[in-house]
Design goal:
The complex is a heterodimer of chains A (about 725) and B (about 120). Chain A is α+β, with helices and mostly antiparallel strands. Chain A has five domains: about 1-130, HPT domain (Four Helix Bundle (Hemerythrin (Met), subunit A)), CATH 1.20.120.160; about 145-280, Alpha-Beta Plaits (2-Layer Sandwich), CATH 3.30.70; about 335-390; about 395-570, Heat Shock Protein 90, CATH 3.30.565; about 575-729, SH3 Domains (SH3 type barrels, Roll). Chain B is an alpha/beta fold and about 120 residues long. Chain B has one domain (about 5-120): Rossmann fold, CATH 3.40.50. Chain B has five helices and five strands, in the order βαβαβαβαβα. The chains are: A alpha+beta (about 725), B alpha/beta (about 120). At the A-B interface, helix 1, helix 2, helix 7 and helix 11 of A face helix 1, helix 2, helix 3, helix 4 and strand 5 of B. Chain B: This is Two-component system response regulator.
Amino acid sequence: MTGSIMDTFFEECEELLEAMDAGLAAIEEGDQDAETVNAVFRAVHSIKGGAGAFGLDDLVAFAHNFETVFDDVRSNKLQLDEKLVQLLFRASDHLSDLVTCARDGGEVDQAHHDVLISALGEYIDDDEEELVFEPMGVGAAFDPAPLPSLAEAKEATFDIRFHPLKEMFDTGNEPYFLFQALSDLGELTVRLDDSELPGYDAMEDGESYLSWELTLVTSENRSAIEAVFEFVEGLCELSISSEGEEEADADALAALNAAFGLPPVEEESAVALPLEQPVPDAVETPAPVDAVAEVEVTPVPEVESEKVAIKAAGSKKESTKSSGPKPTLRVELDRVDRLINAVGELIINHSMLAQQIANLDVSDTRDVETELEGFKNLARDIQEGVMAIRAQPVKPLFQRMARIVREASAATGKTAKLITIGETTEVDKTVIERLADPLTHILRNAVDHGIESPEARAAAGKEKGGEITLTAAHRSGSVCIEVKDDGAGLNRKKIRQIAIDKGLIPENAELNDSEIDNLLFLPGFSTAKEISNLSGRGVGMDVVKNAVTALGGRVNISSNPGQGSVFSIILPLTLAVMDGMVVSVAGHTMVVPITAIVETMRGNDDMINNLGADGTLLSIRGSFVPICDVAGSLGLRSNTGDEPAGVYLLVETENGDRCALAVDDIHDQRQVVIKSLDGVCGNVPGVSAATILGDGKIAMILDPESIVTASSSAAVFDTDRRMSNAIAS
Amino acid sequence: MKTKVLAIDDSRTIRNLLAACLEEAGFEYHSAVDGREGVDLYPDLAPDVVITDINMPNLDGFGVIEELRGDGINSKVPILVLTTESSADLKARARSAGATGWITKPFDDDSLIFALKRVTGAVA
């Protein structure tokens, strides 16, 4: 039970940390109104509260310092200036690290921790810290059932005299319940003292006339009895005396008083406890009588008038119910995934059914087909609905990226600001989770290599601070994430030279700008002369590409010298189902993602142009596109070369080049359920996943991108060159 | 009849902890995510006791107590303040608004039940 509550706590921490970051970002932007500041305070406060419940002392202690500073901001004791805001950002990042450590284990950087603690400490008055911070528990004085002392619990008789002041009744405290709680401690005798009760005529409404004399025989000590009266302290006259009481109990009382900041009481057998004067005034809320009266004469429904009366009776705030968050339901991810699987099976089932019906020897299947179409539409609706459950806005991810940019800027001494656009764009949860690493890498690169130093920027006539824009948008069935910086742009000459030096391309390779830019994604490429400890952590942009490809997406880069670079990541909306074109290749049925296909065409002799010994080009409306034989590149059949294939699928590669995939035939276009091959077989170049078709057979889902590159990336470059030569001659 | 508790806290963690503890102890547990929702829920729910956090959006714990004790609702049920703040003046402020008692976070199950017992007499 505690485990699952702890899970809840960490989930909640994620949300609170996001809220905190969002609040701090708003504050940095100049929005320093009370509600924004309060929201951040509450976030820190809630983290502290929850952490306390699980005994996460480090987290509590740090959150406490953070909170204390923020409380001063809240009460205007501290002014938010640039320096403080930056400190708060760092503290927020560190708090996030502490949460992660508490959840996953591990250690935070202790030196960094101490630096932040002392930096926060500079904003905290010494006495303030002492006063508020009470680390764990409520203190032994309030322990509900103190263990009997080891020296065998001795019974003692306590005489208690209790007279409630009338103010006690305004707080909802009832003497009866207190006596009940006392009777749990031992044998209790209750005597009512009504001697103060005046005659009926002299009685005043609400006045307290009764007193009680209680005798308690108990093995508990005095502090247990005092704990019972904790809430009414100051609201009653109370005296507790005993005969067999141990001396040690006086110490307990001293501790109790110390807890309330009271002077130590002289040791004596009876101690009176009217500790504070009650504060009766504030209880009577000065309700504006005329306002209430007005309500009463206004002919509005009763419920309505009651509401108005409540407002008149003291609350300043408007009801915010209507503008509150939409009700939500939290569901385990497993359940959603089971549903997604079931929907996948439903779609497969539909395909099978359709195929069975087609195979039936029935003359008129029109009615059945209409119903089947309805079935298909419903399945699609359900699928979209389920996908929507998994979809989450990219906002939290983007907010984390703000931290990356902050840290990268600090580490490089550059000034860079992250601007986010399209934060509400919703993307599959898994995609968001797996995007964090590639995005982090791209952003670090953007700060490290993209944005110039302030001096260089000034020299180029730019603002000293660089800008990185992170955009998310839905684009025709895909999600597009773009990272754009306004830095120097890619140094193509340098990139080309490095690629040649590392043997990634032949020296005589003729590459266009876009091809040069995309060299960055080749494994083993790194432009940094010396590996900077920021972006160059021994991984190159190929890791980014692999991560994105694993999500069924592609990444592209474009750059303008002097104006900056743009990294685009294009991802499918869902990881579970896609629209595919079912084709046959050398007797095998395969699926090509629709999103990759630009155009399809039947092949004929006129379209084929030979180029050199083994190159073929497809002529489409006056332009030439290299042909890639799918069967050949998958090793299913040797490349026959100049024979026209049945069908060409014109696909666009990630750098915008086109290629014609030669296949034997097209069968169908349909939704297919993506079944991962992970753990079933290793990475097969050209194949991204598998699916189950209507006839129950398994078909491979092709990855056009890798087929094109795998078939012969050098040959494509080579072909390109010869093609341009051919066109020129 | 189970004792009906309305817990008002914006932290899901705390609500879950309260729910686990109170339901196991035999209380009927209801919750609200902020002060406003708590006050809105109160009339129809008619709980036997209210537990409220102090720092909350929309309406804070002091606001909750004031509205519940105010002329509109005129509640007489015990209200326990659940707070990490242990400072005496916050307690005094809560009490002067009409709070019955307080539970200091982090609470353990025993001290929570003990506090409830002292204000409602409910034996768990």
